[in-house]
Amino acid sequence: MSNITVCSRFRPLSSKEKINHGDNVCVHGIDAETFVFKDEKEENFSFSFDRVFYEKSEQAEVYEFLALPIVRDAVNAINGTIITYGQTGAGKTYSMEGPSVLECDEKKQGLLQKAANGLFECIKSTEGAVKHTIKLSMVEIYMEKVRDLFDLSKDNIQIKESRVQGILLSDVTEIAIFDPAEALQILSSGIANRAVGETQMNMASSRSHCIYIFTVQQGLAKEKRVKCGKLVLVDLAGSEKVEKTGAEGRVLEEAKSINRSLSALGNVINALTCGSSGKANYIPYRDSKLTRILQDALGGNSRTALLCCCSPSSSNAPESLSTLRFGTRAQHIKASPRAHCKEDYTKNHEASHATKYELRERILN
Ligand code: ADP
Ligand code: MG
Predict the structure, then answer these.
(1) Dist CA 280 CA 264 (whole Å)
(2) Rounded to 5 degrees, what are φ and ψ at 120?
(3) Which of 38-42, 199-203, 219-223 has the lowest mean pLDDT?
(4) In the chain, is it the N or the C terminus that has fewer CB atoms within a 10 Å radius of its CB?
(5) 72-90, pLDDT tens digit by residue?
(6) Which band of pLDDT confidence, cut at 50, 70 and 90, is reported for residue 328?
(7) Which residue, 113, 101, 363, 81, is CA-closest to 211?
(8) Does residue 235 have a pLDDT over 80?
(9) What is the pLDDT of residue 59?
(10) Which atom of ligand 1 is nearest to the CA of 90?
(11) Cα separation of 159 and 41, whole Å?
């Protein structure tokens, strides 16, 4: 049993924060793990994480510390989950996707592109010994419904649990990918289908939680038994309080739905880390779609890393403090992931293969 990895990341001051002369930088780094956060009332709070990424940190540093060990394990059939958390505008999507999934230089590529690359590199190093297949699914949780981002007609995907494979999304589209460039093209077609709205906080803030699932199968179909690791990347919707978004109508409903699911996530984390035994008897995973999908990640059978994204500015201090406290609580979650086997592979696989091939061709051409 080890604790999940929790890191924090401060983005640079935005141009709006720079123009606003009342804004100060709240974070005073001590070392790579510790910093002091001074709130708008000049009160000091000290925080420690597995690693702190300050404004000059490169995307590659974040990937190598937070994600690479998890990517390597996924190729060995150990599930992994990487989550970005924080208020809207804090740098979650930048950390995950960089400025754009398709069009950005390698230096700016986010965890997503680097993980896709990393999976293929890890596979190459084992070439010959085993055969791997990588498949990709993308869903978003919007207003408590799980939507398939590769097939919008599947707008209410059900969540199931299997004893061997853990949490599964019923009938979700899985697209086989054969190289990193192809993966980026397929990812970008899914991202284009995300629900984006406008709030006062961010021009195109995402109003949904976005979940990328890479399934890495290892072994030959004719053996009817393959090992299977899932690498799940989660770009959460903004954690800010509803009032701060200035939302009305549908946008307000969206914000409330986001707040409810993030509260459910907080409650699950509290239940997992309370008391001397470290865990409550009942963990309320079923209180939201998000916690249900993250059940494997939080319940122990996954290597999990959480990136708490924050603005460094005093005008966002209350939200940043709330994000950092969320991360501090999550540090107590324990995990002991084990390798997965998936039996009877051929039965599930062959039937739907034809339609998926068609969709794949359509995206890539
Ligand atoms: P979120 O997904 O948390 O709402 P974004 O990732 O969209 O926030 O970030 C908001 C803005 O800040 C974007 O314009 C993004 O490019 C910029 N940004 C975020 N993090 C960084 C960073 N580490 N370096 C440079 N720019 C960043
Ligand atoms: Mg975002």
Answers:
(1) 15
(2) -65, -35
(3) 199-203
(4) C
(5) 999 988 999 999 999 999 9
(6) very high
(7) 81
(8) yes
(9) 97
(10) 3
(11) 45
What is the model's pLDDT at position 224?
A: 65
The owner of tokens 């080890």 is 2
Q: Tokens 């505008």 appear where?
A: 89
What is the token pair recorded at 264? 């459910």
Q: Where are the alpha helices (DSSP H) in 98-200?
A: 111-125, 180-191
Residue 98 pLDDT: 95
CB 268 within 8 A of CB 285: yes
> For residues 287 and 271, is the Cβ–Cβ distance under 8 A?
no
DSSP label of 210: E
Confidence category of residue 162, pLDDT binned at 50, 70, 90: confident
Residues 114-132, mean pLDDT to the nearest whole number: 87
Query: Do 172 and 148 form a contact (C-beta atoms < 8 A)?
Result: yes
What are the pLDDT digits (tens) for 347-360? 444 444 545 667 77
Structure-token match 């992994």, residue found: 80
d(CA 163, CA 167): 9
Shortest-distance atom of ligand 1 to CA 86: 3
pLDDT at 348: 47
Q: Residue 32: beta bridge partners?
A: none
- Other C-beta atoms within 10 Å of 263: how many? 14
Res 197: pLDDT: 46
Centre of ligand 1 from the C-alpha of residue 229, in Å: 30
Inter-residue contact 184 to 116 (CB < 8 Å) = yes
Pocket of ligand 1 from Cβ distances under 6 Å = 11-12, 14, 86, 88-94, 99, 202, 205, 238, 309
Helix pair 111-125, 180-191: axis angle to 10 deg: 150
CA–CA gap between residue 34 and residue 183 (Å, rounded): 36
Picking from 231, 218, 215, 141, the residue whose alpha carbon sits closest to that of residue 176 is 215
Handedness of CA 109, 168, 196, 135 (dihedral sign): positive
Q: How far is the CA of 23 from the centre of ligand 2 (A)?
A: 22
